[in-house]
Each structure stands twice: as C-alpha cells, then as structure tokens.
C-alpha cells in the first residue's frame, strides 16, 4: 500500500485523539494511539536513509519477503512481512516506540487482498495497538480496528474512505492470551535478528567513519527524524570498546565514572557535535532501576536527557541543535531547577546533595518549551514510597551568546501520588 494512503488512514484514526503525554505518566488509550501514529510517520520518513535487511523465501509455494529497517543508532524501527500467492497478498507491518522495550507501545497492521473470480478484490485490514491497559499492565492489546471492502475490477483498493469498526476487547473471544501477546510482541525482534545474520541490502552508513571510534550510541536515544542521537564516550583517552562490552546485557558499560561523557552525535556523518553534560555509563536505555530517557522535540532540534532512578533523578540536562548541524549547547536542568523548586514548596534545600528530586513526564516543543514534573519521594523508613510533594515546572530553553540557558520558569503544585 502506498505511503500517502497509509498516512491518510492514520489521520482518520487519530483525528479525535488528545495531545500525547510522556510514557512516564499513565496515558489514555487515545493518547497512546496518537503517540504510535506519530511514530509511524517519523519512521516512514526515514526508511530511505536507514539500514535495510531483506530475505525472500519461495519454499512454501508462496513468495514471502521479509524486511527490517534499522536507524543509525542500530535500533530496529520497522519490520514488514509480505506474502504473495498469485494475486493473493498479505502484508504485516510492525512499528514500535522502542522495540527493545516493546511493552511501551507497538502497532501492528495486517492487510489482506483476496481476488474474486470476476476480477474484484476483497480487502481486509486489521490495526492492533499494544500498550498500557486501562486496568494496568503493559504490552497488552489496548485497541483493535478492522475494516473490510469489496472493490470492483480495476478499481483502486485504497481503503481510506472505508470506516473502521472498533473491536470489543471486553469479550474473551477477542482478547489474545498471554502466550499470544508475547508471541506477537517478540515476532518483530526475532525476525529482525535472523535477517541481521546476512549482509544488509542497503547501508548508508557503511563507508562513513567520522568519530565512530570515540563513541557508542545509547539505544533508544535517536531523534524523531533519525538524524541525531546521544552516545557514550570518554574524555581525552582512547577507548578499548571490546573490553567494555558486557555479554550479559549485550551492551557497552563501565563502572568507572572518571572521564565518562555523553555526546550528541550526527548519525549520518558519525560526527560528535558536543557534550550534553550528563554521564550515562552504558548503551542500554535501562539497567534495572537506572534509565536514560531522551525526549526530543518533534522537529529534532531540542532534547532533554534524563538519568532516572528509583527514588530520584541522577541528572537531567536540556540541549539544542541548530542548522549545520551544530550543537548550540546544554544546560543542567537538575541543578538549575532544584533550588527554585525547593524554594517554591518552602522546604530546605541541600545544595551539596542537589536535592532529591525525581523528574518525569517530560514534553519538549519545537520552540524549546519544556513541560515536566518533579517530585520528592521518601526512600526509606515507615513512609517509604510516599510522596512529599509534586510540582509541575514549565520553562524555555534559550540560546544566548554564553550558551544555552533557561527562562520563564513557572511552577504549580500537583496533588501527591497515593
């Protein structure tokens, strides 16, 4: 199916959806659907400049073509399986917010085309959205839409005008079992890893070296357009990457804090643009409780890199990329906001410890506005897990001759979590 047809279908599906929130907050089904829709559009636009693996299998009588696309961060961004048997065709496509953490959200499209004896074509489509359920639990089927249409001989098989029918997931017969869910969620990565055992069909990064010896990209940190990412590196010393590779986590990781740098890199040129100021020590997005969450503006110009942990954030920085591309700089949001937040809630602030704030629910707009939440949690004792306070903070990342800064900070109290 043509790309513009699919995009039009998405518009019909998401036209009434509300503004998407961060994955850190509980989201409605509509918000999760919209987030997956946005991800679909971002992925489709970068496929032509992504690494592509492909295979063809004709052993079953039908021709089955499998394709997997990876961005410059080596993250799987799309998997497609197409089967053709004469004029009969079936296409299955998978998109996810992060295939390494598929329970965050995944979309699955199945389109079947069955020819009739008179030259007509029956088209059946299913759209399944996986994410956080209304009653809790991640990686569950949260919405399924189906449509079916019979097209006359020679007529376009575009289903954009065919209405969707929402499947009632309250019925046991329409809900997948736990085994079926896990099989569906695992299918893209399992197939993609098999395809990666062969030589890429297309690799735009193959002959680009740049600064690649100096860094390794943090998975899940790529910008929406796939052009930039955050990477692990070290200051002023050669790196033995083989010695840092951890087979258990299948990632590069160091426990030596000295000299760690997080870089903003241009993936196409494999060029380091600058330092974020944070120091995430590995290339996985998550290591148990510690997690590196990178939130980008939709135009890939502003970002917030949050080093989250169980009870408080280890660091939080904001940065900006300008045309060139060049790195305009970064500002430490944890250090800048902590005293302001403690002053706002009228509590003592320990400047040496930098407070004990947990940031989450980051949103970044194309003009550098940042909307986030900060909370102080009790990490021990009888009140362990309780919330002392929650604050919403809004600010703008502002470029100055001296570098990036923040301006227009506004705060309001939020109800404590129970």
Question: Overview of this structure, please?
Answer:
This protein has helices spanning 3-14, 29-46, 178-195, 241-244, 333-344, and strands at 51-57, 63-70, 76-85, 88-96, 106-115, 121-131, 140-151, 165-166, 215-217, 228-234, 245-246, 251-252, 260-266, 271-275, 291-296, 302-308, 315-322, 326-332, 357-364, 369-377, 387-400, 403-414. With 418 residues, it is α+β, with helices and mostly antiparallel strands. The strands form five sheets. The chain has an eight-stranded antiparallel sheet, with helices on both faces. A four-stranded antiparallel sheet has the order 9-10-13-14, with no helix packed on it. Strand 5 (106-115) and strand 6 (121-131) form a beta hairpin. The chain is globular and about 80 Å long. The N and C termini lie far apart (47 Å).
Task: Set down the secondary structure blueprint.
Layout: H1 3-14, H2 29-46, E1 51-57, E2 63-70, E3 76-85, E4 88-96, E5 106-115, E6 121-131, E7 140-151, E8 165-166, H3 178-195, E9 215-217, E10 228-234, H4 241-244, E11 245-246, E12 251-252, E13 260-266, E14 271-275, E15 291-296, E16 302-308, E17 315-322, E18 326-332, H5 333-344, E19 357-364, E20 369-377, E21 387-400, E22 403-414
Antiparallel strand pairs: 1-2, 2-3, 3-4, 4-5, 5-6, 6-7, 7-8, 9-10, 10-13, 11-12, 13-14, 15-16, 16-17, 17-18, 19-20, 20-21, 21-22
Helix pairs in contact: 1-2
């Amino acid at each position: 199916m043509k790309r513009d047809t699919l995009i039009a279908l998405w518009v019909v599906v998401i036209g009434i959806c509300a503004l998407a929130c961060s994955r850190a907050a509980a989201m409605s089904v509509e918000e999760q659907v919209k987030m997956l829709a946005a991800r679909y559009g971002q992925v489709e636009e970068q496929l032509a400049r992504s690494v592509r693996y492909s295979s063809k299998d004709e052993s079953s009588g039908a021709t089955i073509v499998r394709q997997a696309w990876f961005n410059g961060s080596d993250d799987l961004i799309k998997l497609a399986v197409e089967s053709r048997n004469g004029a009969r065709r079936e296409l299955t496509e998978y998109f996810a917010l992060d295939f390494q953490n598929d329970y965050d959200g995944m979309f699955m499209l199945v389109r079947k085309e069955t020819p009739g004896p008179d030259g007509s074509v029956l088209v059946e489509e299913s759209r399944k959205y996986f994410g956080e359920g209304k009653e809790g639990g991640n990686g569950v089927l949260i919405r399924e839409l189906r449509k079916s249409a019979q097209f006359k001989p020679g007529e376009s098989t575009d289903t954009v005008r065919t209405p969707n029918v929402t499947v009632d997931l309250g019925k046991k017969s329409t809900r997948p079992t736990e085994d079926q869910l896990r099989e569906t969620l695992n299918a893209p990565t399992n197939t993609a890893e098999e395809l990666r055992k062969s030589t890429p069909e297309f690799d735009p990064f193959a002959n680009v070296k740049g600064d690649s010896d100096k860094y390794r990209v943090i998975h899940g940190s790529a910008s929406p357009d796939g052009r930039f990412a955050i990477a692990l590196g070290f200051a002023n010393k050669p790196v033995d990457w083989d010695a840092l590779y951890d087979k258990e986590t299948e990632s590069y990781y160091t426990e030596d804090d000295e000299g760690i740098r997080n870089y903003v890199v241009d993936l196409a040129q494999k060029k380091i643009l600058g330092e974020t100021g944070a120091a995430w020590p590995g290339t996985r997005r998550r290591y148990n409780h510690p997690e590196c969450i990178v939130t980008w503006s939709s135009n890939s110009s502003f970002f917030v890199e949050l080093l989250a942990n169980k009870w408080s954030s280890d660091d939080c920085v904001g940065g900006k990329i300008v045309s060139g591309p060049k790195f305009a700089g970064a500002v430490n949001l944890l250090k800048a906001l902590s005293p302001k937040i403690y002053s706002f809630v009228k509590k003592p602030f320990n400047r040496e410890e930098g407070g004990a704030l947990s940031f989450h629910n980051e949103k970044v707009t194309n003009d550098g506005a940042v909307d986030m939440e900060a909370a102080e949690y009790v990490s021990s004792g009888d009140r362990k897990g309780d919330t002392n306070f929650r604050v919403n903070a809004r600010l703008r990342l502002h470029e100055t001759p001296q570098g990036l800064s923040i301006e227009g900070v506004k705060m309001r109290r939020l109800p404590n979590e129970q």
